[in-house]
């Protein structure tokens, strides 16, 4: 970072190092930290540190209190952070972007995807964008479990005419199938332009064997949904998780 | 059965013994079997054999084809069968009832709950009803994962002024919390009279420890939902799974 982008600084909020049960701080601490940085005019972007579970728990506390500075920012992350990205996009606040997070860099990951993420964040460098975005249509990307947990709520954005990209990790096929049913029957999603499937990784054992592949499943559910299946995309819990700015890039 | 209810007969459809990957027969076979029995005027009730996963996959195929005979029937089951019970209730077809299934009888279960189920089915015997139904308010009962998978779809019934009873099994607390968020923010459920929590059993390990109990969780989410929490009820994946006829019993 210091060598590549010497004129930019990443500041980690102290809340990142807190711990309270499952979470990095209590809901109140996490909400206060987000609001503090989101509403700070000196900060250009919020790069979420990690996913896991829990950003849904602060939506009611933070969404009504985002001011002008928050509206100008870019918000970047994926997986569980889809709750916040979706809620921000639903209200037209800032520029939500699906991309890898700081915590993605690890022992088995050289950090190519975080390089793409920072490149977009700082220079709007398009090299890390999902190749499927070349069609010029607005898109949004979600972890499937997070998308389905947003369905039915005011926090699911209106994705009419958008390409919806989904990815999943650590689930058995029967649960993926159930989530695809949920997506396919969501009245809120009837107007989307099409669906692309990203990486479905670390699939948990299904006992007995499910009897279908994920490619067969997505085709069947898109048909039941009445929405075109547009093929694969290059996002997910993988070292080549690409950047998807919500809306037209 | 033969001794207790000699004048009644249980017929198992041959489809119950089929196998196709994860399912007891292909979707087409399962849909055809359900329609055959549901539309047969000689049959008084459909007692689903077992849960697991997959009744959602036949909803589009069966719901438009249920005739007069199907409208007079009682439909009884729980867990995954909540997809069908919910869809039937949403369309006002027959009498959906949450209760144990034939497969509930097993090595570690004397079958008290299946006795309650059959007692209601045959004699409208109220001894197996969930004690919470004594308040006289209409109710409906769902496995939480099934309820959340129905949210946003036309198959979720209008539960305005109903007491909603939920139960769960085999999930870690963070997933239960995420499903409760989904329920609490479902616009379709804003008008319910209140929520009761049934058994939450075989809770999977949460790493790190979640930091809240299920009772704390349900209180917090009911508050965020703006719906009264009415206390516990006696349903779930337990040997004392009580009967909950949808609507006024």
From TrEMBL, chains A, B:
<keyword id="KW-0121">Carboxypeptidase</keyword>
<dbReference type="GO" id="GO:0006508">
    <property type="term" value="P:proteolysis"/>
</dbReference>
<feature type="domain" description="LD-carboxypeptidase N-terminal">
    <location>
        <begin position="8"/>
        <end position="93"/>
    </location>
</feature>
<dbReference type="Pfam" id="PF02016">
    <property type="entry name" value="Peptidase_S66"/>
</dbReference>
<dbReference type="InterPro" id="IPR029062">
    <property type="entry name" value="Class_I_gatase-like"/>
</dbReference>
<dbReference type="GO" id="GO:0106415">
    <property type="term" value="F:muramoyltetrapeptide carboxypeptidase activity"/>
</dbReference>
<comment type="similarity">
    <text>Belongs to the peptidase S66 family.</text>
</comment>
<dbReference type="InterPro" id="IPR040921">
    <property type="entry name" value="Peptidase_S66C"/>
</dbReference>
<feature type="domain" description="LD-carboxypeptidase C-terminal">
    <location>
        <begin position="143"/>
        <end position="248"/>
    </location>
</feature>
<dbReference type="InterPro" id="IPR003507">
    <property type="entry name" value="S66_fam"/>
</dbReference>
<dbReference type="InterPro" id="IPR027478">
    <property type="entry name" value="LdcA_N"/>
</dbReference>
<keyword id="KW-0378">Hydrolase</keyword>
<keyword id="KW-0720">Serine protease</keyword>
<dbReference type="InterPro" id="IPR027461">
    <property type="entry name" value="Carboxypeptidase_A_C_sf"/>
</dbReference>
<dbReference type="Pfam" id="PF17676">
    <property type="entry name" value="Peptidase_S66C"/>
</dbReference>
<keyword id="KW-0645">Protease</keyword>
<dbReference type="InterPro" id="IPR040449">
    <property type="entry name" value="Peptidase_S66_N"/>
</dbReference>
<protein>
    <submittedName>
        <fullName>Muramoyltetrapeptide carboxypeptidase</fullName>
        <ecNumber>3.4.17.13</ecNumber>
    </submittedName>
</protein>
<dbReference type="GO" id="GO:0008236">
    <property type="term" value="F:serine-type peptidase activity"/>
</dbReference>
């Amino acid at each position: 970072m210091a060598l590549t982008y010497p004129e930019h600084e990443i500041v980690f909020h102290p809340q990142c190092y807190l711990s309270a049960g499952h979470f990095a701080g209590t809901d109140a601490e996490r909400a206060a930290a987000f609001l503090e940085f989101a509403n700070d005019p000196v900060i250009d972007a919020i790069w979420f540190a990690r996913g896991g579970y829990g950003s849904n728990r602060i939506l009611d506390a933070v969404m009504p209190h985002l001011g002008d500075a928050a509206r100008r920012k870019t918000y970047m992350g994926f997986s569980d952070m889809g709750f916040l990205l979706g809620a921000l996009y639903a209200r037209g606040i800032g520029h939500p972007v699906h991309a890898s997070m700081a915590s993605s860099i690890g022992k088995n990951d050289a950090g190519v995807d975080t390089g793409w993420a920072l490149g977009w964040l700082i220079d709007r460098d398009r090299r890390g964008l999902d190749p499927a975005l070349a069609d010029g249509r607005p898109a949004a990307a979600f972890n499937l479990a997070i998308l389905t947990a947003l369905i039915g709520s005011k926090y699911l954005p209106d994705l009419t005419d958008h390409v919806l990209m989904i990815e999943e990790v650590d689930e058995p096929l029967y649960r993926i199938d159930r989530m695809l049913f949920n997506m396919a029957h969501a009245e809120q999603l009837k107007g989307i332009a099409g669906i692309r499937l990203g990486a479905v990784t670390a699939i948990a054992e299904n006992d007995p064997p499910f009897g279908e592949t994920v490619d067969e499943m997505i085709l069947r559910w898109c048909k039941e949904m009445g929405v075109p299946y547009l093929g694969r995309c290059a996002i997910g819990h993988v070292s080549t998780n690409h950047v998807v700015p919500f809306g037209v890039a």
